[in-house]
Design a protein that fits this description.
29% helix; UPF0153_domain; 83 residues; mainly alpha; YkgJ family cysteine cluster protein; Puta_zinc/iron-chelating_dom
């Protein structure tokens, strides 16, 4: 599955414990990543500063569903189940 441009759910719903530029302690669940642009695209996507956890995440119907809203619901549930 290809990432849905402008979705950004994976940059909002889950926590990221890895340091990010400007976020040395990572990002809390449910908080929009500061590197997510107005168009919901990753500003670090092609940057060497992009964390490995972000590089490793691959779009998949099991976590992305069929829309941004469905992806948010799935990712919030997964975050809660693994917290």
């Amino acid at each position: 599955m290809d990432c849905r441009l402008g979705c950004g759910a994976c940059c909002i719903a889950p926590s990221i414990s890895s340091p990010l530029p400007g976020l040395p302690l990572g990002k809390a669940a449910g908080v929009r990543c500061r590197h997510l642009t107005e168009a919901s695209l990753c500003a670090l996507f092609d940057s060497p500063e992009r964390p490995q956890v972000c590089h490793a995440f691959k779009a998949d119907a099991l976590v992305c569903g069929s829309s941004h809203d469905e992806a948010m619901q799935i990712l919030v549930r997964l975050e809660q189940e693994t917290a």
